[in-house]
Write a structure and sequence with these properties.
With 296 residues, the protein is α+β, with helices and mostly antiparallel strands. It contains seven helices and 17 strands. The longest helix is centred in the middle third of the chain and has 29 residues.
């Protein structure tokens, strides 16, 4: 009797093992996110000579241009302001505000409020120093604190992806062509500077912008952007058969350099090539190095 029971138990175990799914089948039943992909298409190419003539024209030789598309976040100067070379004049937020990280936005606003508070304190300290109510040492300490706060803010702005348009030499602000909240595109004129002798020298930065703008790049749907300056590229298996049969891929976040955009698409100057696969919708819901199924 015991022998029969032992035999039945063995047969039952064999039955369970035979019914267990294989590792391959287990892998197949893992729920994966389905994503919609798009292949970037070629963007229009702007003739280099046209751009070269544009920036070399005398009336444009003392202008600052936007080197990234985005929204004007801050204008840090006014007409007739005196500026130094390297000083930030305008800040541009390249991110799509509908997809921007609210936590990052709060960090930026809090840091800006702290900087504005320090700047107001410095104005007050300067007035007190003028009236001999505080010492030179106290004023210098406040100035050092302000410079430190300003450097921290600039560092945070850079890390959050905010673009600063800076003066390429010392001069006076003659014209400001943009307003806070306005959307600008690459190459759009921002500010005119006038140097001590009437105009600032032409600078290599203008020509680096020219070379950057002449690149045709590629275009993707505007919905593919995440955080305003990134896209999610899909890395697929090398085997074409495997791609057709399973439609599997691994996500990879890619930083990109943007050009012009409209309500439907955005130009990518650097970061994505023709033939690559980009997540068209919902990329902000995915994580880097995530396994997904795709359809096109």
């Amino acid at each position: 009797m015991k022998g029969v029971s032992l035999l039945n138990l063995c047969l039952f175990l064999v039955f369970l093992v035979s019914c267990s799914p294989s590792e391959e089948l287990q892998e197949d039943v893992i729920p994966l996110v389905y994503v919609e992909l798009v292949q970037p298409w070629e963007s229009e190419k702007v003739p280099y000579e046209k751009l070269k003539n544009y920036v070399e024209d005398e009336k444009f030789s003392n202008m600052l241009f936007a080197d990234n598309s985005g929204w004007i976040l801050d204008i840090l100067v006014t007409k007739t302001s005196m500026v130094k070379g390297g000083e930030a004049l305008v800040r541009i937020d390249p991110r799509d505000v509908r997809l921007s990280d609210s936590a990052a936005r709060f960090k930026f606003e809090a840091a800006r409020a702290r900087l504005e508070s320090q700047e107001a304190d410095f104005v007050r300290f300067t007035e007190l120093k003028r009236k001999n109510f505080i010492s030179e040492a106290d004023w210098q300490n406040k100035r050092a604190l302000l410079l430190s706060q300003r450097a921290e803010f600039e560092d945070l702005a850079d890390r959050l992806g905010v673009i600063s348009v800076r003066a390429f030499s010392s001069g006076r602000v003659k014209n400001i062509f943009v307003e806070v909240g306005e959307y600008v595109v690459v190459g759009q004129k921002i500010i005119t500077l006038v140097g001590k002798k009437g105009a600032v020298d032409k600078n290599a930065e203008v020509f680096s912008l020219t070379k950057k703008s002449q690149s045709s790049g590629v275009k993707v749907p505007l919905s593919a952007l995440i955080e305003g300056n990134k896209v999610m590229v899909l890395i697929t298996e090398k085997s074409e058969a495997n791609i057709r049969n399973k439609g599997l891929g691994i996500t990879s976040i890619r930083n990109v350099s943007l050009g012009q955009r409209n309500e439907k698409s955005v130009q990518i100057l650097e970061g994505v090539e023709l033939g690559e696969l980009v997540v068209a919708v919902g990329a902000h819901l995915l994580s880097d190095d995530q396994k997904v199924r795709f359809f096109r």
